[in-house]
UniProtKB/TrEMBL annotation:
Keywords: Cell adhesion, Disulfide bond, Glycoprotein, Immunoglobulin domain, Membrane, Repeat, Signal, Transmembrane, Transmembrane helix. GO terms for molecular function: integrin binding. It comes from Cyprinus carpio. This is Cell adhesion molecule 4-like. PANTHER family: INTERCELLULAR ADHESION MOLECULE, INTERCELLULAR ADHESION MOLECULE 5. SUPFAM superfamilies: Immunoglobulin. Residues 110-209, 220-293 form the Ig-like domain. It is found in: Membrane. The gene is LOC109056197. One of its GO terms (biological process) is cell-cell adhesion. GO terms for cellular component: membrane. Its main location: membrane. PROSITE patterns: IG_LIKE. It comes from the Eukaryota. It is a single-pass type I membrane protein.
Amino acid sequence: MLQRFYGLAYFSAVLLFVTLTGTQAECPVKLNPQRAVVRYNGSVEVNCSTSITHKGMGWEASEGAVPMTRDKIIAWRVSHLTEWDIEPFCFINHEEQCQVQLPVTIYKTPDSVSISIVDHRGPMIEGQQYKLQCDVHDVAPVQYLTVKWYKGQTLLDKTTFTEDSKTPLNETATLLIRPDRADDGAQYRCEAELELGAEGPQPPPKETSGSLNNELYYKPKHSSSTETIIKNDEVTLNCTVKANPAAMYTWHSEHLKEEISTSVLQSPTLSPGNYTCTATNSLGSDSKVFIIESEQTDRTTFWAIVISGVVVALVLIATYVIVKTRSSNNSII
């Protein structure tokens, strides 16, 4: 008998729970907006309205509670919202009391955003890998935070976070890079953006780090390994190449009687032949061969072509005259 009593009591409790859940799911109130996004210590106002006759409605909240009223619209207002985990709800007495909770997101932009290179000081070296670090201090909520990485105006990557926290946290994001000589002078930066959805501020609030202006070292590298130059009144051999640290230059040729350390040779007295220039810095070296050809050789080739053309033309003219003459003789006979 006692077991049957407990069974009926359990069934009644389940039935009551189902009834209340169904009533809450169909609670005849509407929130506008349906979600509140508020800057920390900022103001907020949300209306709760109904279209039915009721016995009273109001707001329950740890800040800005509104006493029960018979009006059909009431507003929840807070001028300086500072409670991170606030959970306000609007309730109404209609047949039974039901309530609708207002989702509230309180956000705070970072106190600071900074960028650095992890475990490295001094210039970066071309081709080596480095880790950039972006430190974001005192930001909330981090699950809405996106860190964006830029090189100049180019977006390199994005970092998002999964922590479900309402209060401010410090966050760190990292990015691996492998710079080359094309990145010489490039400026890296990171940007912390809070993407709070359609109800949040537009455009999304963001804070940007300063620029990371780190020097890049790379060895000399010529665009080509050889260059041919026709000797005329003035010959210029230009071995200048980009390198960091700046390159030192040495020239080698059987025609040079002394050591030359400039990047450019310019002289009317340079003899035809090969001249090898080597550019060197602390990271390596690269050589280029300049081939000076005699202008006379070039003219001989030119006149050979001209004479050959003239000979061919004369042969064609002679052939034409002979054919023409024979044709005329045949017509007379």
